[in-house]
Amino acid sequence: MTAIAVTFLVSCLGDGLAITALMLDFHDRATGGFAITALFAAMSVPSIVLAGLAGRIADRYSARQVLPPVGVALVGVCALMSLAHAVVLLVALFAVLSALMAVVTPVFVKALLAASPGPLMSRAGARISMASSLGFLIGPALGAMLMDAIGLRGVLLADAVTYLAVPLVALVIPAPPSPTTTEQPGKPQTKSGLGPGLRILLQQPPVAQIVVIGAVLTFTLQVTNVVEVYLVRDAYDATATVFGLVTMAWAGGQIAGSGIAGRLLAERPTTRPALLLVIAITAALLAIAAFDSLPGLFALTVLAGGANGAFGVARQTTIGRAIAPTSQGSAAAAHAALLNTATIIALMSAGLVASVTAPRTVYALAGGTLLLTLSAIPLYRRAGHPQKPPAHAEPDNTSSPAAAIPTD
Asked: What is the pTM of this model?
């Protein structure tokens, strides 16, 4: 499990290296905001468009079959990017890179869950969250420093080296069990893809509720992320260094929250803690809107980041416990597509909101949106009832003990 988590961290670090280096290069060439917008679209859109294909691949093929060829392709695309100069070509190749990562991510998630039976499932969720947070925290900082030292070509070649971890980790992943005699080789036992993945996520009320709240949470936090720079630089008249420290406070809180939740939720229900964590984030956003204190901003940012990291673990654990292993790839791909859709909508609307509304008002609106969502979705409706297996899943006598742990 550790090798898979470390590889996922390194691949996320590679993503952070690439997009930071390209953003700085486009800025230095004065390509304008359109090129940066296209870059972010190239990062997010492939995971939505390819969610169905990525889910089918993750459910039908083992990590040992998928990771070597896709990992080699990641290295090759980075090498080609290091030779390219035209902005259009760089954006197109970055879209290909993001498409390959869209295929790899559900494979990583499914492999981590498969290596984390029973009480270890929450720790797998923690490692997924921590790896993603650390990768996207270290990657941009490292990419910015390397740009000054070795330039765009050097950074992209370094990025190619990080992706070598993807095919190499396949060497240490255990081989999947052989098909039973009742199964038809090569034929999936359940439907896979984007549509089936969304149905799997939404057909069970506890999972559906936490997924919907998570999508709204992603939307509101992405909006506040855009506005945060205006809050720190304009409302508090603080320096760029302070803004960087606030960003690090969020990331540090998120990593700590993920680690703590991974231990505490090992054999506990997850839905009720998830609700309390979203309430904590809501309270922090409303407090940031209400109080004018820079130290208070740091404290509230750490609180909100920690609660967000812990919520991610609770959400991943809920999904992992409730969904049959044969459908986890499609569910992971569909979930990623849902969150990326929320992110794109948030980024498209944040600029408009920030241009007509004060930063504190945006934080208040974000907190209010979460309050409305919490009041509209009755998370306690199935409290105290053990999770029933999904209708699409075949009975499995070897299922992990986590299946007996209720989500709430």
From this structure: 0.73
Q: Report CA-CA distances (Å) from 52 to 74, 198, 298, 364, 390.
A: 20, 10, 40, 36, 20
Residue 8, pLDDT > 50, answer yes
| CB contact set of 184 (below 8 Å; sequence gap of 6+) | none
Q: Which residues lie closer than 8 Å to 370 by C-beta, 6 or more apart? A: 216, 217, 220, 278, 281, 282, 285
Q: Where do the H-state alpha helices sit in 231-270?
A: 240-264
What is residue 387's predicted lDDT score, i.e. its pLDDT? 45
Instruction: Tell me how far the alpha carbon of residue 366 is from its chain's centroid.
Output: 20
Which has the minimum average pLDDT: 22-31, 82-91, 291-300?
22-31
Q: Give the single-character DSSP code of 186.
A: T
Asked whether 313 and 122 are in contact (CB, 8 A), the reply is: yes
Could you give the CA distance from residue 317 to residue 335 in angstroms, rounded to a whole number? 13
Cα–Cα distance for residue pair 277/274, rounded to 1 Å:
5
Q: Is the dihedral of CA 140, 6, 48, 274 positive or negative?
A: negative
Sign for the CA dihedral angle at 166, 167, 173, 178 comes to positive
pLDDT for 397 equals: 36
User: What per-residue confidence (pLDDT) applies to 30?
Assistant: 76
Residue 228 to residue 235: CA distance in whole angstroms = 10
Identify the pLDDT of residue 116.
Answer: 66
Q: What is the pLDDT of residue 300?
A: 95
CB atoms inside a 10 Å sphere around CB 376 = 10
